[in-house]
Amino acid sequence: MAEVLSKTQEIQSGGSVFWSRILGHQGVLIGVTIVAAVILIALSAPLIAPHDPYHQDLMNRLVPPVWDARGSWEHIFGTDHLGRDYLSRLIYGARISLLIGIGAALISGLIGTFLGVAAGYFGGRVDMVVTFLITVRLSMPVVLVALAVVAIVGGSLQVVITVLGLLLWDRFAVVMRSSTLQIRSMDYVAAAEAVGCSTTRVLMTEIMPNVVNNLIVIATLEIAHAIILEAALSFLGLGVQPPLPSWGLMVSEGKDMMLFEPWLITIPGVALFLLVLAINLLGDGARDITAPENRN
Questions:
Q1: What's the pLDDT at 116?
Q2: How many CB atoms neighbour CB 67 within 10 A?
Q3: Mean pLDDT of all residues belonging to the chain
Q4: How many CB atoms lie within 10 A of CB 232?
Q5: Which residue of 12, 193, 224, 241 is 20 to 30 Å from 148, comparing CA positions?
């Protein structure tokens, strides 16, 4: 009984230390706050958006934001060149950015993690094949390949997510391969193999828990990377197609008026900057908190 109580107290103590590290990490707090706010805004977009993001009113086109002398509270962030409410499009645009970032990271993460862990654990010919695939992938410029594929297939939300997911797996593979190679030689892995654990059990119980912190960091980086790439593709007219309210597309639509109405590109540009910064801060903080040397 005393041993059970001691173990319970140890778990509770470890949990309190873990939460104290989170609360004491300024980058994590900032990142979590901004990302949580964006996710909440995206999920509640139909409830908080003041107008229909697709409704056009040419009589009220290019209305400036409320802080401008010509602005009004009816359109807090103004309207675009078609008279659509800019705040509403910005709110719905958060959905597009998060969906593309998370979707592309999931696809690339599954591919890269599978290849990297397989290469690091099995070695030999498997490692040679995976290394060759990584080399081939690194020889292809992401933006140019994405532009070519989207131009041929056609730009849409599904196509952008799929293309980015199939092009961003190399970083996952490289990091997972390196991490698995280091852990593969550890004594606890050899002990698990010696007692007859299956390969699947060794991978799931000995390898993956010790590389998950690296996986978290790479996932956050790739989410931010995918969001930026989508914005670049949309800016060039080959990403998310109108009338979807993508932040990159909003910047593209406002670039012709940037000298006369700079808020058209400033508002979505700042939104992109804050979201990508928050994701990177969250990933960096997650690496510090979940690193094996910082565990109890």
A1: 93
A2: 10
A3: 84
A4: 18
A5: 224
Centre a 10 Å sphere on the Cβ of residue 135 and count the other Cβ atoms it contains.
10
Q: Is the pLDDT of residue 148 over 90?
A: no
∠ CA 207-185-284, rounded to 5°: 50
Q: What is the dihedral of CA 274, 278, 281, 285, to 10 degrees?
A: 160
* Beta bridge mates, 82: none
Q: What's the mean pLDDT in 115-132?
A: 91
Q: What is the pTM of this model?
A: 0.83
The residue among 10, 8, 4 whose CA lies nearest residue 295 is 10
**Residue 224: enclosing H or E segment and its boundaries?**
helix 208-235
Say what percent of the chain tops pLDDT 90. 26
Question: What number of CA atoms fall less than 13 Å from residue 140's CA on the CB side?
Answer: 18
pLDDT of residue 189: 85
- Tracing tokens 């969906």 back to the chain, one arrives at 99
Q: Which residue has the tokens 């999931």?
A: 106
Homologous superfamily of domain range 42-294: MetI-like (1.10.3720.10)
Do residues 161 and 95 lie in contact, with contact meaning Cβ atoms separated by under 8 Å? no
Q: How far apart are CA 175 and CA 170, in angstroms?
A: 9
Summarised one tens digit per residue, pLDDT across range 197-221 is 888 888 888 888 888 888 888 898 8
Question: Domain segments of the chain: what residues?
Answer: 42-294
Minimum mean pLDDT range among 35-44, 183-192, 222-231, 282-291: 282-291
